[in-house]
Amino acid sequence: MPTLDMPDRPHLDSFRRQARALQRAARAGDPDALARLARDHPGGPPGDTSALRLSAAQAVVAREYGFPSWPRLTRYLETVAEHGWETGLGAAPATDPADEFCRLACMTYSRDDGPARWARARQMLAEHPDLTNANIWAAAAAARPDDVGRLLSERPRRAVERGGPFGWRPLFYLVYSRFDPTVPAERVLAVAQRLLDAGADPDEGYLFDALPSPFTLLTGVFGAGELGEPHQPRHPHWRALGRLLLDAGADPNDAQALYNRMFAPDDSHLELLFEYGLGTGDGGPWKERIGQLPTPARMLRVLLRWAVEHHQPARVRLLVEHGVDFRSPFEGDGPRWSPGDGRTPVELARLNGDAEIADYLLAQGAPPPAADPARDLIAAAFRADRSTVDKIRAEHPAALAEARRDRPGLVVWAATHASGETVGLLAELGFDVNAFGRGDAPVEEAWETALHQSAGHGDVALTRRLLDLGADPNLRDKRFDATPLDWARHLHQPATAALLEPLTT
User: CA 158 to CA 100: how far, in whole Å?
Assistant: First the structure.
């Protein structure tokens, strides 16, 4: 796992300087440098660091950023130089009206996205209808096939030229445009087909802020993401447009699209992608460019874990029906919220008290999990099954202490995904209601408290219960330095905000 974050504007010279600095520090016996070598040098630290070679320091730097070797890092930086894009460009107004229209019309996967921005683009185009006449990027964003066709007939190479405010190619502006939800499908598909016929790449994509998962045309078609549907909606004609791109050869194994849409239970995008081979093949051109991207099979295993842990039974069934491995334990490095911790899908379902998914997987042939008193106790608590909890504690006196040690932030997860009764039971068992954890994934990471989650979700009953159990309303989360009251206000939850207001200092 990487220990350093990729900078916003990565350049090879910066990494070379880091490697030289590490080499000098290690040769001088600097303790921090020696610790970095001990942690990240392939095969362990060299015996004699007084003559450390630059190649050894380069290998350590590469691994600190999540790359297995220096050549893999340099290859990635070359890809960033060719395909990188900065989301900050979306906030910088353009002086040219056509460029400004493109800027306002398109999703940029930044916090500037949203209906108000796209309404400004509609108004601008209404006031200046001719701004697409000579600008193919604006003509594509506005889905105007006549302008696009005329501009291509004048110079066919325009289909693959970068331009506009973001330096994207025309097809990307078309696919990421959201300025008019009523735009006719015929116009959108006509523009897309003309650009593809003129040489546009159906696998076009960019690395937003140098992140290694490419945002492709399909990513834009399917939309969604961490800000949710109002800010990052799917294209109004996503199904027809997605099918057109897939027919043109777009690779269906789109890691970013799968991630963006995994939060909601809708599976229509998966059904379309499975038609075109999702989960098969070698990962396509982006896997070739960025070797550390997961394989198609690995992408779907990560998706399976999320579906199991977030009670998405229809998605679990769909994945199993399409051959995704549901028997093997999750092993190897994965995203922070999908660790390779050796648990099977059935074990995860039982651990979260999800009998529906666990029973389905067992019926499909998943091996029954071995008894594990600590995990079984947690599973019983999530079912609010007090009698089973008492039985496990009587038969295995160490189980509760082990469960509290392994999952200190469990109340946070329970406050988001279980009942108030479960939260109360966990508190009785000694789990700390003021512990920090994550509400979006059942991993131990100190993000927020259970009270932050209940306040943000507007759950008055659970907020009252947590307060009665001793939850502290003045604790600030570790990411935004905000109180539960701040969460309630930010997420527009007036009921919990009113409850917390007199208690927050």
Answer: 19
Between the CA of residue 423 and those of 266, 402, 462, 474, what are the distances in Å? 28, 18, 9, 20
Residue 492 backbone class (left: φ over 0; alpha: ψ -120 to 50; beta: rest):
left
406-435 confidence digits (pLDDT tens): 999 999 999 999 999 999 999 999 999 999
How many angstroms separate the CA atoms of 326 and 304, rounded?
A: 8
What is the side-by-side order of every strand in the sheet holding 205-208?
Answer: 84-85, 205-208, 215-216
**Which pLDDT band, with edges at 50, 70 and 90, does 335 fall under?**
confident
With vertex at residue 329, the alpha carbon angle to CA 323 and CA 334, rounded to the nearest 5 degrees, is 90
What are the pLDDT digits (tens) for 155-164?
A: 999 999 999 9
Is 31 buried (19+), middle (13-18) or exposed (0-12) by CB count in 10 A? exposed
Identity of the residue numbered 330: F
DSSP class of residue 252 equals: S
**Interval 10-57: pLDDT, tens:** 889 999 999 999 999 999 999 999 999 999 998 777 778 888 999 999
DSSP-derived secondary structure letter, 106: B
CB distance 213 to 228 below 8 Å: no
Q: Is the dihedral of CA 200, 206, 212, 213 positive or negative?
A: negative
Domains and CATH numbers, the chain: 12-85 (no CATH), 87-292 (1.25.40), 297-363 (1.25.40), 407-503 (1.25.40.20)
